[in-house]
Amino acid sequence: MLPATEQETNDVIEYITWQAPDVTVEMLQKVYSENVLHVCHNIWDVHTDKGRWWVITEPTNLYSQDQFPNMDLALTFHVGLCLRIPRSEKQKLSALPVEPFAEAYRYLEEASDALQHAEEVADYQAIGVRCREALLAFAAAAQMVLPWKSTDEAPKKADMKGWTDHICTVTMPGSTHENRRHLFKNLLDSAWKFANWLTHTKGSKWHDAEAGFSVTENAIGLATSAVIRHIRGVPDQCPACGSHRLSPERGYRDDMPDVEWERPACTKCGWVGEPVKIESVPQVPEEPRQAPEGECIEPSIPLRKLLRPPTSSES
């Protein structure tokens, strides 16, 4: 059994109650935790009056222990399910915690969509253009939240290298962050150079376009995380217990119901930091979904469907 905070326990109970309001939780415990592809998945063994369930987090889902008697099998299925979620069911851009970098992520989405249909050099060049625009949009947003304060002349708005140096220096200052700064600067600089090459070369292949998108997505994702941690005051570790298990919490204040706030919270001891105002992300109209081509496939082996806790109407 692993230690768990009261908040974690309440979250699991609330999830079970939401999924099956007629089920009563009799006992639960966190039994395992594993990082897979940089995502921490916690596994809970939940006993109810209508069976036992595995509840696995990030994203949270439950699995019947009748179907998955082995915990490792449940985790493997859960991770595979997360990786195979169709793009149409991914989080909306407005739901991602990337304010104020939404525009950069829109260009990344466009590049990802274009990559799926790219066949010719012109298509690869267009992906390079979108990657360049994504990097410039990231730099422009960072300029707003990390304004230039030096007495020296600020870099020009489109000076990617100049703003990369500034962003990394501000978000990762001091000798303790020297290697981190070096890594992030090289990532952003390499993504910028490769995107420019991809935009203009006539000798690129599909794998070059894939590499350009991947390195750009990786660089922007890591750099965005560094900037957000800096502007929202997220410490390197919990100041109360020293744990590195810090997660963001969002909510609203009674006196400002239209403003969303975020604060860091320790999942080990329950410490919370000072809340910071979250700027809203402009809503982008959703494109109408197209009907799938061909016949739908309903697998029947080994599982026809996942069991869910029964409700009163099904009892």
Write up this protein.
This protein folds into two domains: 6-88, no CATH class; 93-231, Four Helix Bundle (Hemerythrin (Met), subunit A) (Up-down Bundle), CATH 1.20.120. Strands 1-2-3-4 form a four-stranded antiparallel β-sheet. It has a three-stranded antiparallel β-sheet with strand order 5-6-7, with no helix packed on it. Helix 3 packs antiparallel against helix 7, helix 4 packs parallel to helix 7 (206-231) and helix 6 (178-200) runs antiparallel to helix 7 (206-231). The protein has helices at 6-19, 71-83, 102-117, 121-145, 160-171, 178-200, 206-231, and strands at 25-36, 39-48, 51-56, 61-64, 246-253, 256-266, 276-278. The longest helix has 26 residues, at 206-231. With 315 residues, it is of the alpha+beta class. It is globular. Residues 86-96 and 281-286 have low confidence and may be disordered. It contains seven helices and seven strands; from the N terminus they run αββββααααααβββ.
Q: Summed up, what is this model?
A:
Helix 6 packs antiparallel against helix 7 (206-231).
Radius of gyration: 23 Å
Question: Into which percent range does the helicity of residues fall?
Answer: 40-55%
Strand content: 15-25%
- Low-pLDDT regions: 86-96, 281-286
Assembly status: single chain
Give me the number of helical elements.
7
CATH fold description of the largest domain: Four Helix Bundle (Hemerythrin (Met), subunit A)
Strand order of the largest sheet: 1-2-3-4
| Shape designation | globular
Q: Tell me the major beta sheet.
A: 4 strands, antiparallel
CATH class of the largest domain: Mainly Alpha
